[in-house]
Amino acid sequence: MDLTEIERAFLKQLSSEPWISTPLFDHELVARLVELGLVEANLLASGEVEYSITAAGRASLS
Length: 62
Description:
Shape: globular
Mean pLDDT: 93
Order of helices and strands: HEHEEH
Radius of gyration: 11 Å
Oligomer: single chain
Number of strands: 3
């Protein structure tokens, strides 16, 4: 699977810990990673989104 440099960098960041979006974050930047099942997005009660890497996402980094 061909990932962009930005997508690969985001996955590497998530491999160490989940990330909670900032209020102005453009969620379209990671929509493809979510659709591919590489990243999981969870809506928090605060309205923010927590992103975490999936097993498939970890495998794509190897």
